[in-house]
Design goal:
The chain has 64 residues and is mostly helical. The protein contains two helices and no strands.
Length: 64
């Protein structure tokens, strides 16, 4: 089993973080806006689907 050396671990972590390609501010902003737009569209779709299913179930069961 390898010996645990926290100093070496932190050095390796620092090396790996240096290899990461970080997104630009604009890329982050565009991705965030796209995610929020898709969440809004999905929520509207599921709201509409829920309303249609609710209407159909109430009609079939003659609750209305």
């Amino acid at each position: 089993m390898a010996a645990i050396n926290p100093i070496k671990f932190l050095q390796e972590v620092r090396q790996e973080v240096g290899k990461v390609t970080w997104p630009t501010r604009q890329e982050t902003l565009i991705s965030t806006v796209m995610v929020l737009a898709m969440v809004a569209l999905a929520s509207l779709f599921f709201l509409a689907a829920d309303q249609v299913i609710s209407f159909l179930v109430q009609t079939v069961l003659a609750i209305r």
